[in-house]
């Protein structure tokens, strides 16, 4: 039964892992964002090449032109998906940065409140 439990609940090491720090998460999000931007650039180049190929074969070889247009359409679909993923990653990165800023502000406000309390106690 323990093997079955491990299968559904995962191993102890996977449950015992600590959550990543904000800096680690931000670094990973930035790396992913850079990778997606490179893929986006690559797909844009491929779309341009397929369009040029379709125009080249336009009247002489309709089959090759249609295949190039189908590939172009597929690349455009992938590009749309990447755009959505990039916007999600950007939103998460900004939310994480803002939460870090908010945490610092609240920590400093707590420090100031303690200082004010100490000043009032000394009066």
TrEMBL record:
Gene3D superfamilies registered for this protein in UniProt: ESAT-6-like
GO biological process assignments: protein transport; vacuolar transport
Keywords assigned by UniProt, alphabetized: Coiled coil, Cytoplasm, Endosome, Membrane, Protein transport, Transport
Predominant localisation class: cytoplasm
Pfam families according to UniProt: Snf7 (PF03357)
UniProt membrane topology term: Peripheral membrane protein
GO-annotated cellular components: cytosol; late endosome membrane; midbody
Keyword set includes Flavoprotein: no
Region (Disordered): 1-24
InterPro entries reported in the protein's UniProt record: Snf7_fam
Residue stretches of biased makeup (Low complexity): 11-24
Compartments in which it is found: Cytoplasm, Cytosol; Late endosome membrane; Midbody
Recorded family membership: Belongs to the SNF7 family.
Name of the molecule in the record: Snf7 homologue associated with Alix 3
Lineage: Eukaryota, Metazoa, Chordata, Craniata, Vertebrata
């Amino acid at each position: 039964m323990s093997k079955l439990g491990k299968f559904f609940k995962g191993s102890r090491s996977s449950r015992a892992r600590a959550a990543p720090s904000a800096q680690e998460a931000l670094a990973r999000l930035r790396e992913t964002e850079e990778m997606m931007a490179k893929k986006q650039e690559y797909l844009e180049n491929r779309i341009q090449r397929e369009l040029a190929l379709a125009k080249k074969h336009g009247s002489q070889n309709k089959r090759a032109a249609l295949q190039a247009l189908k590939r172009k359409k597929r690349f455009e679909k992938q590009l749309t998906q990447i755009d959505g993923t990039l916007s999600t990653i950007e939103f998460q990165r900004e939310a994480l940065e803002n939460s870090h800023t908010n945490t610092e502000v609240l920590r400093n406000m707590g420090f100031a409140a303690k200082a004010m309390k100490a000043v009032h106690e000394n009066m």
